[in-house]
Amino acid sequence: MTKIISMIILVGTSMLTSAQVGINTTTPEKELTVNGTMKTSGIVFKQPMEKLKADENYTFIIKSPAPENKITAYNDSFVPNSPAPINLIQFKITCDPSDKDWVNQFDTLINSNKFLVVISSFGFTQPTRTFSADWLTPMPQIFAYSSEGTWKLKADYQGFAPDNSFPTGVWTLNLLVFDRSYAKDFSPTQNLNASTTGAAAAPLIQ
Fold this sequence. Notes:
By secondary structure, the protein is mainly beta. It is 8% helix and 34% strand. It has one helix spanning 2-17; strands at 21-23, 32-34, 38-40, 43-45, 61-63, 71-73, 86-94, 103-111, 115-124, 141-147, 150-156, 170-179. Strand 5 (61-63) and strand 6 (71-73) form a beta hairpin. It is elongated and about 80 Å long. It starts with a helix and ends in a 27-residue tail after the last strand.
């Protein structure tokens, strides 16, 4: 009888204390609070796991650089030599003096297998003109494309050019660079079959 009563008391005490468990801490904040490095299912969680600041709504969980290779909350000061999940890069490209506005190909050397590049905005230092009697508004051809493992840029006012008296033009291209771990790109080719209207063959995102 004594053994049975002792077992009941032990189980009851365990149930009372199981609401909040602390490891290396006497003041657990949640059901399980670990003060230190934690390993679960082969994944090591770095200490400390940074908490969100008052002005932050979310964060990324990343693997810290070698040799640690531990899971931690993303912090740009913690990994200063590593790219962020989303990066803003600005290139200022001076054109060929003979053409003044043409960038046929500029290799950013950004790995297109690891990153996705989007041109978010641009600027050009010189006005463009044409030798036409009519007023025309030039439209720039500006795009980024992947070739031979890196992202290339093209920029040009095709059919137009700055006046010969103007200095050589300079393009400012602002790029959003996404880590492919957090972004997807879809590149379907659609044939309108000699029509001016059409629709996607299937929804790419739904």
